[in-house]
Amino acid sequence: xxxxxxxxxxxxxxxxxxxxxxxxxxxxxxxxxxxxxxxxxxxxxxxxxxxxxxxxxxxxxxxxxxxxxxxxxxxxxxxxxxxxxxxxxxxxxxxxxxxxxxxxxxxxxxxxxxxxxxxxxxxxxxxxxxxxxxxxxxxxxxxxxxxxxxxxxxxxxxxxxxxxxxxxxxxxxxxxxxxxxxxxxxxxxxxxxxxxxxxxxxxxxxxxxxxxxxxxxxxxxxxxxxxxxxxxxxxxxxxxxxxxxxxxxxxxxxxxxxxxxxxxxxxxxxxxxxxxxxxxxxxxxx
Length: 286
Hints:
By secondary structure, the protein is α+β, with helices and mostly antiparallel strands. It is built from 12 helices and 7 strands. It folds into 2 domains: 2-174, Nuclear Transport Factor 2, Chain: A (Roll), CATH 3.10.450; 177-282, no CATH class. Helices cover 44% and strands 15% of the residues. The chain has a 5-stranded mixed sheet with strand order 1-2-5-4-3. The termini are far apart. 40% of the residues are buried.
């Protein structure tokens, strides 16, 4: 079974420029998804965000976390019931892990957990010894974070997609218009370390390039949840909100934050205000 993980890592290294570290992390992300599919998790929840775009739609950037949204609101949700299956699947592939739910310190609708394991031991299992990077500290730990929104906005739509590696698995995923709506809400609302998160803007352009339509109701519900309530709601209002947002962004800084995660750093060479404003006429609702 370790051979399957080795094959997955090599394919990912050939695809992107992130090297061994990103390739291993992506492989472990897919292992977690496959493990969750063996439980009732995807009857209750759906996969969304940048990693969903990466795995199922070929987003050309690495995404760090696994993001999920419950289908029905449930503030009593916890990750603990799923840890045994996750650990069992990892063990089957020769990997020893610790799975832990993060204790909530402040009030939040999001339940967070993570899988962690010794980085060098993981590399020894997945990769031939001649590839294992000698620079890795023997105490270094790889963490894969995953989160579930327990009180999600209304209006999302879903589809079931097939994960083929490391084994066949059915995964419930937000459909593309809902994924685009969620990404636009992040573009409008999210700040990261007092700056914009450039990866949100990269994903926005990815959707525009695909011709993704927008689930306007789900986007509106995302805005309401964040305390933003437009007096009217239509495509013209959305374009005005995006225009105002784009005009406030330092796109040089946003591009610099994004570059290390990209398969092809040249993808952000055209980033400036006029480039983003030119995308507004290409937006369509679903």
